[in-house]
Amino acid sequence: MKAIIKTMIAALVAGAIMTFGGSVADAADLATWQRSIAKTVAQKQVYPRSALRREIEGQARVQVTVGRSGEITEFQILEDTGHEVLDREVPKLMERISPLPTPPSDVSDENLTFILPLSWVLQ
C-alpha cells in the first residue's frame, strides 16, 4: 500500500482575484506564487501513522489568509475530512508551512485569502 498526499491550490477567493492587476505578467506572477505554495505544502504535508495503519483516507478544504510577508495570519477548515486523525493534522500543517512564499508585489491587498484543498489517499 502506498500513501499519496495530494495538494493543489484552488482558485483564489474572488476578493483577491479582483484586486490583482489584470496584465499577463501579473497573472503569471500569481500562477508562479500558487505553484510555489503547492510545492511547499506538498513537501510538508504528513500522512499520520495511525491513519496509515487504519487505512483512513480523506479530503479537506481550508481557507488560508496570508499576510504580505507570507505568514499565515488565519485559517479555517471549510470542509473537514470526516476523520479526527486527519483533521488534527490540518493545524499542524498550517504551523509547518508558515511562512509561505511571499505574495507577488503587484497584489494590493494586505492579506490574500485562498482555498487550499488537501487530500490523503492510499494506493
Describe this structure in words.
This protein has about 120 residues and is an alpha+beta fold. About 35% of the residues lie in helices and about 30% in strands. The chain contains 5 helices and 4 strands; from the N terminus they run E-H-H-H-E-E-H-H-E. The protein has helices at about 15-20, 25-45, 50-55, 85, 90-95, and strands at about 5, 60-65, 70-80, 110-120. Strands 1-4-2-3 form a 4-stranded antiparallel β-sheet, covered by helices on one side. The chain is elongated.
Work out the helicity level: 25-40%
What is the count of β-strands? Answer: 4
| Low confidence ranges | 7-22
Span between termini:
6 Å
Strand line-up across the major sheet: 1-4-2-3
Order of helices and strands: EHHHEEHHE
Q: How many separate helices?
A: 5
The overall average pLDDT, rounded, is 83
Q: Which radius of gyration do the C-alpha atoms yield?
A: 15 Å
Defining traits:
alpha+beta; 5 helices; single chain; 123 residues
Topology (elements, then pairings):
Layout: E1 3-7, H1 14-19, H2 24-44, H3 49-53, E2 58-67, E3 72-79, H4 84-87, H5 89-97, E4 111-122
Provide a concise account of the structure shown.
By secondary structure, the chain is an alpha+beta fold. It has five helices and four strands. The chain is 37% helix and 28% strand.
